[in-house]
Amino acid sequence: MSKITQYSTIGALMSGHFAGDFTYQDSHSPTLFGLGCSCGISGELTVCNGEFWEATAGESLHQLSDSTLPFLQVTDFVAEHSFKATDISNENVEQHLADQLAINNIFLAVNVKSCFDEMVIRRPQRDESQTRTVKEISDAQQVDTHNGIAGQLIGFWTPELFGRISVPGFHFHFLSDDRKISGHVLSYKATDAVVDYQVKQTIEISNPASEAFTKLDIDVEKLDELISHVEK
């Protein structure tokens, strides 16, 4: 798959549309790779080798069964390019990739593998009522720091131009090698890492077909600030 397939947009999610409109099924390509969230933003989803892992505060990491999802961004990932990186972190990963190719106007699928010196992730609290605002969800999330943890970053680079469709810049989720730890990545450091990436020429977006989405009021002026507050 030379394209990124995305269900809904980060703009719609941040504007409060996190009902599960997209039907998730168990059968997937073994190369499926990506991220998303579960219904009501009750869990951070990480997709690796076709498996969907849900990370929720206070719960063990588990594979997602049949469900509906509000947001998903996936691709078939087979590394086209790879390089070794020294002293890589969330603060300099953009430069590491920019040293390989011009990234300002392209989409990338990116996989970073290492025994990370430090990994800071967050997980939302489960809320079956789906009555919380996005800011309330963000403010109540559990933040954990892990040191010396082996695993991988799974995610995408999105040009600033498309920052209301997807999270601008890098958007990573973490999955540990032992499949016990996962979540949305806030920061990380690694002395040595292997970075694999693919250039993606196409992003295909399916919008929800529900009446709630059709009538959704998206405040574009506040959207960029909200995305930065919640996703960065």
Structural features, described:
- The protein has 232 residues and is mostly beta strands.
- It has a single domain, classed as 60s Ribosomal Protein L30, Chain: A (2-Layer Sandwich), CATH 3.30.1330.80.
- The chain has helices at residues 10-14, 93-98, 134-139, 211-214, 220-231, and strands spanning 3-7, 22-24, 32-37, 44-48, 51-55, 62-63, 67-69, 71-76, 81-89, 107-123, 142-158, 169-176, 182-200, 202-206.
- The strands form three sheets. Strands 6-5-4-3-8-1-14 form a seven-stranded mixed β-sheet, with no helix packed on it. Strands 9, 10, 11, 12 and 13 form a five-stranded antiparallel β-sheet that branches. Strands 2-7 form a two-stranded antiparallel ribbon.
- Strand 12 (169-176) and strand 13 form a beta hairpin.
- The chain is globular.
- The two termini are 28 Å apart.
